[in-house]
Design brief:
With 317 residues, the chain is α+β, with helices and mostly antiparallel strands. The chain folds into 2 domains: 2-129, Alpha-D-Glucose-1,6-Bisphosphate, Chain A, domain 4 (2-Layer Sandwich); 143-315, no CATH class. The chain has 8 helices and 10 strands. The strands form 2 sheets. The protein has a 7-stranded antiparallel sheet with strand order 1-7-6-5-4-3-2, with helices on one face. Strands 8-9-10 form a 3-stranded antiparallel sheet. α4 (146-165) packs antiparallel against α5 and α6 packs antiparallel against α8. It is elongated, with a radius of gyration of 24 Å. The termini are far apart.
């Protein structure tokens, strides 16, 4: 994906050029939700940290000055592929003409539309910095309102159990197909509902849901080209409005994986109670046991159980 933009600015060319050469300005130019900041520099190679899709990342990039008010920035270690950035500044009347070209090469087919929206914000932020436009507001396409997200999760949970009560599909394995969909819905939809319910009881407040990446990417078991292809639903804590104790946070964090282990297990239990020899029930029982085993291993290392343990350590005298 390659895109370009031109700006006419009232600032002098040297001032515009210096703005991009000072990479500390990245935090201002990129959406504030990303928290982009430089953490180190070695020569012309910089390391930055940022948050995206619910995960915290570290990336390296280099900056080259190419003369005649031209710069080239290129990522050396970027989780979403390779990002290249060409900057050209030219005198234009009493001000400047700025031309930017951005190229993103990524294995994720969904990254393009999201990246374009981020770039639109970034371009507006640059113009605002030089007094050429209003302060922009980033509208994250992956953000879901708290009420809408909660209603969706509740409806999916109800649907999961409705699927178990209707006649099987008139195809081979029809009962198993319905049961598998039910199992998957309960695994997906109950995790954040449990966070919300227990968190609300312990004094934690939430601002919204979001589509992000599963914490499984932190384990290092997924190949790098596939790390941006593990979507998950997340729920964002409103820290300013929350009044929970560390134990309250621990309970809230633990509730998510407990729900996503326990609720899918109800599907094979229901099937086996109605027919002890149900093949669908036995297969999904095995899947549930595997899910419990994997979550018990993974979550304390990189998921919500790990967050709960850290909260409990903060509660210790």
């Amino acid at each position: 994906m390659k895109t370009a933009a031109e700006y006419i600015l009232t600032a002098k060319p040297e001032e515009v050029y210096g703005y991009f050469l000072n990479v500390e300005n990245m935090g201002e130019a990129w959406p504030p939700e990303m928290g982009m900041r430089v953490i180190s520099r070695v020569g012309n190679i910089y390391t930055v940290k940022f948050t995206y899709l619910g995960q915290r990342y570290t990336a390296r990039f280099r900056v080259e000055e190419r003369g005649n008010l031209q710069q080239y920035h290129e990522t050396l270690d970027f989780p979403f592929g390779v990002l290249r950035h060409w900057i050209t500044v030219e005198p234009y009347g009493d001000g400047s003409k700025l031309t930017e070209v951005m190229e993103l090469r990524t294995p994720n087919p969904l990254a393009g539309p999201i990246f374009r929206r981020i770039l639109r914000y970034r371009w507006e932020a640059v113009k605002h910095h030089f007094g050429a436009g209003p302060k922009p507001v980033f509208k994250d396409p992956l953000r879901i309102g708290l009420a809408s997200g909660t209603l969706t999760c509740v409806l999916l949970t109800v649907l999961a159990y409705v699927l178990l009560s209707i006649p099987p599909l008139p195809v081979f394995g029809g009962r198993f197909i319905l049961a598998l969909v039910s199992w998957a819905l309960l695994w997906f939809s109950t995790h954040d509902l449990a966070h919300l319910l227990v968190g609300s009881l312990t004094g934690i407040r939430f601002s919204h849901y979001y589509i992000g990446l599963s914490n499984i990417v932190r384990l290092g078991i997924i190949p790098k080209p596939l790390k941006t292809l593990a979507p998950a639903l997340g729920i964002k804590i409103d820290r300013e409005r929350s009044r929970a104790s560390p134990r309250g946070y621990a309970a809230m964090y633990a509730a998510g994986p407990v729900a996503s282990m326990a609720l899918p297990l109800t599907v094979p239990i229901i099937l086996l109670l109605s027919n002890i020899s149900s093949l669908a029930g036995l297969v999904l029982l095995a899947a549930s046991i595997a899910n419990i085993a994997f979550t018990s291993y993974f979550s304390p290392k990189a998921g919500c159980f790990g967050k709960a343990l850290r909260a409990l350590r903060r509660a210790s005298p």
